[in-house]
Amino acid sequence: MRQAVALGERHLGLTAPNPSVGAIVVDEMGSQPLILGRAVTAPGGRPHAEALALEALGERARGASLFVTLEPCAHQGRTPPCAEAAIAAGVARVVYGVEDPDPRVSGMGRDKLRRAGIEVVSGVLEAECRDLHAGHILRVTQGRPHVTLKLAMTADGFAAVANKAPLRITGAVADAQTQLMRARSDAIMVGIGTVLSDDPKLTCRLPGLEDRSPIRVVLDSHLRTPPTSTIVTSARTVPTWIITREDAPRDAETSLAAMGVRIFRVREDALGRLDLHEALRTLGANRVTVLMCEGGPSLAEELARADLIDEFVSIASSRELGHPGIDALGASLRVAISRNFSARGKPLMFGGDICTRYSRVRPCSPAS
């Protein structure tokens, strides 16, 4: 199952709105288990991993065990149900990590397999599989994507200089890891402040992964995004979406839309800011399951106040700013981290920078 999880991770960012599932077919009848085949959900979300792995093996799959990170689907979509593919292939046992909460699937894949006489084991490496499919699970159950907040900061805790001028904080190794995070996300979101101060590209520039750039999303209440900004002038190459308020200027929308930018309007919250809950539901409705937030402390605070952070990634430089700047961690984010998050494993060294991942503490369901 660990190998299946690793397979699924390969296509994160490529399969939305479908989950990136890993599947491995194993012959367990000999003295030692033998892997017969493996597959991951294809880019675009189809074919599914189980169907790919079983089809490649043909009769060799008969009597084997199928290890899969997510409960096999049981509904007829653009492709036949994976549960039926497992039955037709003649597998003897199906082992999966986490039940699919999609009401078209939930428990039905398991039941269909058992009715066909196939042994079913669920809940194997459930925590790891739940992490792998967190975006799919949240989109199905809450209508929004999984949110990872990434913040870079100096050793003395600052994210920017006082005048908000661009500041290079992390080194090349940490920057490459950030690019990889982008490649594994469906979309990346920043606030208008980041666009105005940095004019970022927000693309994946790792060699060989240049085509894995996520959708770029800007929170811009008044449509101040300049038509000359990099994310606008390149919008026909890498998708750019702007989320704005309902009464934002229509002429600005017309100009941006003419350059290939998609505009989404959402209502304001009680404080007159963009309603982030509606904004994320809008992204979920438009096939986004994994969202990376790379904006600065202001966006981080808004997400923390709205309780919309699922994972927090801190990359701290070994260098100090040495003079007053803008704090990376605002009051709301500090409280959220202390109350709702725990460090995920040991910190990692990226060159001279320290990366710490924090996961939201959630109750675990028992294996079945």
Q: Helices, strands, pairings?
A:
Elements: H1 2-10, E1 22-27, E2 34-40, H2 49-57, E3 65-70, H3 82-89, E4 93-98, H4 108-115, E5 119-122, H5 126-132, H6 134-142, E6 146-153, E7 158-161, H7 172-183, E8 187-191, H8 192-198, E9 215-219, H9 230-233, E10 240-245, H10 250-258, E11 262-266, H11 276-285, E12 290-293, H12 297-305, E13 311-316, E14 325-327, H13 331-340, E15 341-343, E16 348-350, E17 353-360
Parallel strand pairs: 3-4, 4-5, 6-12, 6-13, 8-9, 8-12, 9-10, 10-11
Antiparallel strand pairs: 1-2, 1-3, 7-14, 13-17, 15-17, 16-17
Care to describe what's here?
The protein is of the alpha/beta class. Helix content is 30%, strand content 24%. The strands form three sheets. Strands 6, 8, 9, 10, 11, 12, 13, 15, 16 and 17 form a ten-stranded mixed sheet that branches. Strands 2-1-3-4-5 form a five-stranded mixed sheet. Strand 1 and strand 2 form a beta hairpin. The longest helix has 12 residues. 45% of the residues are buried.
Helical residue percent band: 25-40%
Radius of gyration: 22 Å
Strand content: 15-25%
- Total helices: the number is 13
Overall pLDDT, averaged? 93
Major β-sheet annotation: 10 strands, mixed
Features:
368 residues, alpha/beta, 10-stranded mixed beta sheet, 5-stranded mixed beta sheet, 24% strand, globular, disordered C terminus
Quick structural overview:
It contains 13 helices and 17 strands. By secondary structure, the protein is α/β, with parallel strands linked by helices.
